Amino acid sequence: MIQRPRGTRDFGPEEMEVRRFFEGMMRQEAVLHGFREISTPIFEHTELFTLKSGPGVIEEIYSFKDKGDREICLRPELTASVIRFFVNDLTTLPRPLKMFYFGQCFRYERPQAGRYREFFQFGAEIIGSPTPETDAEAIGLAAAILERTGLKDYRIRIGHIGILRELLAKAGVPGDNALPILQKLDKKSYPEAEELMAQAGMGVIDIAKIIETTKITGPVSVLDSYDGQARDYIRQVCDVLVAMGFSNISVDLGVVRGLAYYTGMVFEVDAPKLGAEKQICGGGSYSLSELFGGEKVFSTGFAIGFDRTLLALQTEGVEFPQPKLTAYVVPVGDTAREKAFQIASELRRAGISADVDIMRRNIGKNLKSADSAKARYALIIGDKELENCSVTLRDLSSGEQQSIAFADLVQKLKD
RNA sequence: GCCGGGAUGGGGUAGCCUGGUUAUCCUUGGGGACUGUGGAUCCCCGGACCCGCGUUCAAAUCGCGGUCUCGGCCCCA
Known about the structure:
With about 425 residues, the protein is α+β, with helices and mostly antiparallel strands. The protein folds into two domains: about 15-315, Bira Bifunctional Protein, Domain 2 (BirA Bifunctional Protein, domain 2); about 325-415, Rossmann fold. The chain has helices at about 15-30, 45-55, 80-90, 130-150, 160-170, 180-185, 190-200, 205-215, 230-245, 305-315, 335-350, 365-370, 385, 410-415; strands at about 35, 45, 65, 70-75, 95-105, 120-125, 155-160, 215-220, 250, 260-270, 280-285, 300-305, 325-330, 355, 375-380, 390-395, 400-405. The protein has a nine-stranded mixed β-sheet with strand order 1-5-6-12-11-10-7-9-8. Helix 11 (about 335-350) links the parallel strand 13 and strand 14.
């Protein structure tokens, strides 16, 4: 027996119905918001990701040399690909570009709850617009999608790395010098962050102020004790979101993200019920295009962890409509067999789902099969029906039967 | 990379500590009772000890290694 590779999953029919349902819902919502879908290759040059995230990522991705000696990897995320696509081919499209994607990603990590080596992300990027409204529109799509899925228990936390950067700059640690400190703060490694800040020459009071700031969480009013451009900016983002009708947002200045390309707003969504891997969405505004050889363009994007979102929905017991088969055609005896296929085919051409016995079973077994196929009706056709050009239509939940002429069948089943 | 639990027909399980029968039970699948009416019942059939090495007269059971899995740590673009 060949086992599935570690950290991968097979999805059976029931699971795929659930997945396609929610996948379709996300796509639909994005389209409603004026986003358009794109698709990029599942493998890319490894360099794309080392440029974005540093050489360290090679340890965490599926990378290999192809037969032409190229350094290739399975994509660990999609933002880099989207921006590469943009820089290569889409720079002349009218701005803003609002695009979304859905696809699988791969990471060479130790699997655990909610973490797989092959997983699915839904994400969106808005390229070429640096306003608070842009950030609100991005967060708004993420929020609308989660709302639409029916998920209840989740928190949207919005931060802004500019606030900490301004504080650090005032304390004498400007620009990129602040990056290592931000990284430690992102990981909540306070002792190490304090040490770095002390080494950078910051005073005890400034250090305490920074640490305290990362612990600020709550409604937009928690910003009142700060000032500066970043504060005003994040406040505007929140105001727009409130106008959009999203009240379950909070400000969390501890959402940091230590990577250099983040330029301002950052946000995360987590579902507390999920345990260790509870983050279901993350995003922010960034500037990556110049890293990939393009001009500097501001973007805002996010990615939803599709698998984790489904896990969260599952723990909450969210229901979804299950596709149902309309008709199961049951031939009785040998003479009606071809007619059964003719009828099934006519129904299918009319867009009515129909299954038909292919195992030559008796009528009892066939009704059983129709039942387990979750069909609404069984269409029974034998010599009696052939004689008067009709079928016996049996409602499988009530057991009621009626005779329907061949000619009226499509019309009858259409509703 | 680290720590701990686990792996028995398609799914769920008993047996493992204390080695020895035809490996238990439920469910699912196929057939029949039932060449014209399902979800009930009865009968029959198919189907498993994760892999390898070792200990032993004898291994699902004990030991070692590996694989996968679950949970946690690290990491999380």
